[in-house]
Each structure stands twice: as structure tokens, then as C-alpha cells.
Design a protein that fits this description.
This protein has 25 helices and ten strands. By secondary structure, it is α/β, with parallel strands linked by helices.
Length: about 650
């Protein structure tokens, strides 16, 4: 028995080394973790992990958290538009793949039961590798990317009952009841989670979210994942199965993204241990001695499954590049194969030879998958050259509300709701990202699309649509937090326009010289100026912006019904008003530039435009000099307009 603390330190250091190497080679990190397992495993020279049993128990937690995260990524509503190919198409592909791989296993000399474990390992494609590849190539939001991810998730879902059946088959002593009973338990558990868990789990997270403690939120999410997994393990199912179902139930709630982002670091640590433990059983001597067999199985499995995917997507009416994307982009075998074969070897349902064969094939598929995915476009172009009439028109697909590309991503202090209301009235798609639960609830009640989570985390911004957004608006009084949000957003979308409305306590000078960042000065007219700068970033002309803000002010003065929210309330009326001034000779404004007029500094009003001798200048610059009889239209908060008029200006 070894020292578990030393083993964990060794695993973490080896994982760090392997992860850096994989990142340098632009490969998935899990490949680096598998190589780290090889480094500290029993088949190589050097430092070795000694307490394999303890590491194996930690690896079980890693597998459960991995499948819990996969469950969180399985919102059924996101697959609505592609449900036929995602569900029925994937089912057909999985059935064909299982039959082929079972036949292949028999040809390799495997018995019936090991052949079924062999076939189950290759049913699904790696969601993690596919997502990373699509993100690197910029196709994650494309229809082809949505179909690939949807089918990949459904593939993973089908592996779970197959794993249960194989586990029961391996444990059963011949009784049909003993074989089927755990499957009945699984069905009852899923039903119970769908009816009861879907009500209780979100309410528990809602209660904890109100406490505004990230630590408590992380603890309750972890407790749900592992606790529910433990309950399923007590009735003969696996820890990973319960965790997966728990994640799938939570995926439909408002807390799924928050749960994913908060659980991320803890999950990644245990997943590292899981993949390192898998890699420790990787035997390089096996690959050397069985190189021909490994390569033959790799080609047979990946190419045949690719043909099935090509045919299924084509049969369900998807043309052009999508079948080619499914063929080349879904070559990597899923990481769930590691969970399955680890379960098989623990049950002694498969031997070390079969374990090593599946492990080698899976790792190699992950290595060659991303480079081969780049063949999608050349092959499609070649096909279009020979059959141009069959690939002339793209398939039209309507987006669901949750999948509409966003023009603007908003985050920050509650004052950001003003701009959200304006954008909603204008019909411009946007998404609010809110880390405070009480503000999130308020936005949902107002009918705003909102995500509950930390805007400085890449996962949250990605879900908000930052990669395709044209502008990011941050209303904040905290410069360090704002800088973190802007840094992550600009890394994901370098062309993003950033508008910062800095409240009291922020330091505008910190942003001097930042390319693509516009800072709105702190005063009472900041809200109006932020609206103007946002619309400019969206490509609006000065005249269009003027008419928009003019309508906003008219909602106060004339009770306009054009700008009402979904409840019939004139939403903009509470944020914007207008005032008008005629410049008198020898008054304080006669010959005064707008920069020193005091409209903004004293009254919190923005100059909307100036009418002079039949000509109108919208949004004049600060050097514009006012003349007698000029009519100045001002806009600002209703209270500021009232104060200006009451002052007799």
C-alpha cells in the first residue's frame, strides 16, 4: 500500500506535463493526460503510482463528474430543430455500428460477450474533441456543427443503457430476472428523476443561489452529482449513470450553465485523475506487437461508422457539406469508451488484450480526428465540381429563440436594464449575463433573455453568443472585474466592439489606448450615451439613432404606443425624456460651444440635435458653437429634463 498523497502529487505533475505537451501540439488535453498515465504507470520505467486501488476510486468520481457534465450539455430543447436526425438518425447509426463492430469482434476471435463490449465501446463519437475542433475552426454555431454535436450527445446517451445491459449480463448467473431487474430500476429511476427530481433539484439550487455564495453553490452541485450517483450504485447501477441522469435533469433549468461553470475546476481535476488512471493501463509494447491489428480496427471502425453517419444525414434530407462534415468530423471515438472498458475490466468481462486494443484505437482516433476533419471542405468542393446541380442551394433552417445569433451581449450593474429595454423594443437580439441571482430573476420577469453565471468565464460568454456578437456592453464600477470580462470576450471575438459605462469607483484612465474599447464618462447622461454608442457599433447611422432616441423621448411627452413592452407598459418612458431650448441673444448659451454649455455636466442631458435656419444637425460634436435662435433638442432621464425646465432654461 503506497502513500495516496504522493500518488496524487505525482498524477497532477505528470498531468501538467502531459497537458502542456498536448496544448503545444494542439491536441485535446485528455491525450496529454493519457500519456501522463503511461509515464507513471506500471509499463514504463521511472516514478510510479503505488496505490492503484485508491486512485481507481478517485477515478470513479472523475467518471461520474464527467458524465454529469455531459448530462448538463443535453438540453432537449436545443435539439428540437434537428430532432429527427439527432434521435432517429443516431439510433439507426448506433444500431448499424453495433452490429458491424460485433461482427468485427467475432472475426478477431472474440467470444460473444467480449464482442458486445468491443462493439459498445465504438458506438459514439467524442463530444469533447468534436466541440474543441469545431470551436477552433469556427463552425460550432453552424448547422453542420449543431448536427454533429447533437448526434454525438445522443450517441453518448445510447451508450448508457447498453452499458447497463452489458454490466447486468456479466453479473447475472443465468436468471432472466437478475438480468432485467437493474434495467427496471434504471427506468424507474429515470421516471422518478423526471417527475420529482426536475422539481426539487432546481428549487434546491434556487435556494442556494439566493445565499450568494459560490462555495455553497459548488458544494450543492457536487453533492447532487455524486449523491444521486451513489444512490444508483446501491441498486446495482453505476455511479456514472446516476450522475449523468442528474445532469440531464438539470440541463433544462436556469442553473445549468452556472452549474457547469462552477463545477468546472473540480471536475477537471478529477477527470485528470480518471484519464491518467486509464493511461496507466496503456501498454506501448502491446501497440508495437499488435500494430497491424490496431490500425486495421481503427480504419474499419472509424471509416465504417463515418459511412453510416454520411448515409444517415443524407437520408434525413441534409445535403451539401453536412454529410461530409459528419463523416470526417465525427471520427474520434468518445471518451465514454474509457468509462465502459474500465467497467468491463473491473467485472472481468473483458481481458487485458481487449482493453488494450480498445484503448489504443480510441486514443489514436482522437489523435487523427482533428487533422482529418479539415478534409471536409476539399471533399465537398470536389463533389460539387462533379455534381453541381445537387449542391446548389443551401438547406434553410429556422433558429429557435435560444439559438438566435446575438447582436449585443450585456452585463454589469442593474443600470444595464435600460439598454436591454431599448434593444428589446428595437427588435435587436441580445443576451444578458448576470452573476447575481436577484438581478437575474428581475430580468426574467421583465422578459429579457438572460443567463445566470459569471461573465468572466468563457463557457458563459460562449453560451451568450459572444463569438458572433457585434458589441459587448459592460456597466460596472469594478475595474478589475470589468477587465477580466473584456479580456476573455476579446480573446473569443477579436473584432468585438466594447462599450464600457463605468459607474462610481471605476477608473476610466485604465482603458486609455485600448483599441476597440469605448468608455462612457460617469454622469447622469451616461445611459443615453451608452445607447448611442451601442447603436453606432451595430452600424446604425446618426439619423437612425436620432429617430430612435426621439421616439424614446416622445414616449414621455406624447404617450407613444410604439415603444411599449409585452405588458403594454411604455417601457422606455421611465428611462428617457426630451427637453427643448431656444437660444436667446446674450444668454449664457449665445456663442457657447457645446463642450462648455453645461448641458451634460450640470443637468445630465445629451444634445440630440440643433435646428438652425431650416437645417438640422444631429448629434453635433463638442466644438459646435450655439447661435441665437438655435433650437436645441436635449435628451436624458425624465427627472433631468424636468429639472432643466424648472430652472427656467
Amino acid at each position: 500500500m503506497g502513500d495516496i498523497s504522493t500518488d496524487i502529487l505525482l498524477i497532477v505533475l505528470a498531468g501538467l506535463l502531459g497537458g502542456v505537451l498536448a496544448s503545444f501540439l494542439r491536441m485535446p488535453l485528455l491525450i496529454g493526460y493519457l500519456l501522463a498515465g503511461l509515464l507513471v504507470g506500471p509499463h514504463t520505467m521511472g516514478p510510479r503510482v503505488t496505490d492503484l486501488d485508491a486512485v481507481g476510486k478517485l477515478a470513479d468520481i472523475g467518471a461520474a463528474l464527467l458524465l454529469f457534465s455531459l448530462g448538463l450539455e443535453f438540453p432537449l430543447k436545443s435539439l428540437k430543430q434537428i430532432r429527427n436526425v439527432a434521435f432517429f438518425g443516431s439510433a439507426i447509426q448506433v444500431a448499424l455500428t453495433f452490429l458491424f463492430c460485433w461482427f468485427l469482434g467475432r472475426q478477431l476471435g472474440l467470444e460473444t460477450a467480449p464482442s458486445m463490449w468491443f462493439a459498445a465501446a465504438f458506438l459514439s463519437s467524442s463530444t469533447a474533441v468534436i466541440l474543441k475542433t469545431l470551436a477552433n475552426q469556427g463552425y460550432a454555431g453552424a448547422l453542420s456543427g449543431r448536427i454533429m454535436l447533437g448526434m454525438s450527445i445522443v450517441q453518448d446517451l445510447t451508450v448508457i443503457p447498453v452499458m447497463i445491459l452489458l454490466t447486468n449480463y456479466s453479473r447475472a448467473s443465468g436468471s432472466m430476472l437478475e438480468f432485467l431487474l437493474p434495467l427496471v430500476y434504471a427506468g424507474l429511476f429515470v421516471l422518478l428523476m423526471g417527475v420529482v427530481g426536475s422539481k426539487l433539484m432546481p428549487r434546491l439550487l434556487q435556494f442556494v443561489a439566493k445565499l450568494h455564495s459560490r462555495e455553497l453553490f459548488l458544494l450543492v452541485v457536487t453533492a447532487l452529482a455524486l449523491g444521486i450517483g451513489y444512490l444508483t450504485s446501491r441498486v446495482g447501477l453505476s455511479l456514472a449513470f446516476g450522475a449523468f441522469v442528474a445532469g440531464m435533469v438539470l440541463s433544462e433549468s436556469d442553473y445549468s450553465l452556472k452549474a457547469q461553470s462552477e463545477l468546472g475546476p473540480l471536475r477537471d481535476l478529477f477527470v485528470l485523475i480518471f484519464f491518467v488512471s486509464v493511461g496507466m493501463l496503456f501498454d506501448p509494447v502491446f501497440l508495437w506487437k499488435n500494430f497491424g491489428t490496431v490500425m486495421g480496427v481503427l480504419l474499419a471502425v472509424t471509416l465504417t461508422r463515418g459511412v453510416f453517419l454520411f448515409g444517415v444525414t443524407y437520408a434525413f434530407g441534409y445535403r451539401r457539406v453536412i454529410p461530409f462534415a459528419a463523416f470526417f468530423g465525427m471520427l474520434p471515438v468518445s471518451e465514454i469508451a474509457f468509462v465502459l472498458i474500465r467497467q468491463g475490466i473491473e467485472l472481468q468481462a473483458i481481458d487485458h488484450y481487449l482493453y488494450s486494443l480498445v484503448l489504443n484505437v480510441t486514443v489514436l482516433s482522437m489523435l487523427v480526428g482533428p487533422p482529418l476533419s479539415r478534409l471536409t471542405t476539399p471533399c465537398f468542393k470536389l463533389m460539387r465540381r462533379f455534381h453541381p446541380e445537387k449542391h446548389a442551394l443551401p438547406r434553410r433552417v429556422n433558429f429557435e429563440d435560444g439559438d438566435v445569433p446575438r447582436d449585443v451581449v450585456l452585463t454589469g450593474d442593474p443600470a444595464v436594464a435600460n439598454l436591454a429595454g431599448m434593444l428589446q423594443q428595437l427588435g435587436r437580439p441580445f443576451m444578458l449575463v448576470e452573476p447575481q441571482y436577484k438581478n437575474f430573476v428581475r430580468y426574467k420577469k421583465l422578459g429579457f433573455p438572460a443567463i445566470f453565471g459569471d461573465p468572466a468565464q468563457e463557457m458563459i460568454l460562449d453560451a451568450a453568443g459572444i463569438r458572433s456578437a457585434r458589441a459587448l456592453v459592460v456597466v460596472s464600477s469594478s475595474s478589475p472585474e470589468t477587465r477580466g470580462v473584456v479580456r476573455v470576450a476579446r480573446q473569443m471575438n477579436p473584432d468585438l466592439a466594447v462599450i464600457l459605462q463605468l459607474e462610481n469607483g471605476a477608473t476610466p484612465s485604465l482603458w486609455e489606448g485600448e483599441d476597440g474599447v469605448t468608455v462612457v464618462e460617469v454622469d447622469r447622461a451616461a445611459g443615453v450615451e451608452t445607447v448611442r454608442m451601442t447603436l453606432l457599433a451595430l452600424g446604425w447611422s446618426m439619423s437612425e439613432i436620432f429617430r430612435c432616441l426621439q421616439k424614446a423621448g416622445a414616449a414621455v411627452i406624447g404617450g407613444s404606443t410604439e415603444l411599449r413592452d409585452r405588458h403594454g407598459v411604455p417601457f422606455l418612458a421611465q428611462f428617457f425624456g426630451t427637453a427643448e431650448l431656444t437660444v436667446k441673444p446674450d444668454s449664457r448659451w449665445d456663442g457657447c460651444p457645446i463642450a462648455t454649455s453645461g448641458f451634460r455636466e450640470e443637468y445630465g442631458l445629451l444634445v440630440l440635435g440643433v435646428a438652425r435656419s431650416g437645417n438640422f444637425t444631429a448629434f453635433p460634436d463638442r466644438d459646435f458653437v450655439l447661435h441665437p435662435d438655435d433650437r436645441v433638442m436635449l435628451i436624458g432621464e425624465p427627472r433631468a429634463c424636468d429639472e432643466f425646465c424648472a430652472a427656467g432654461a
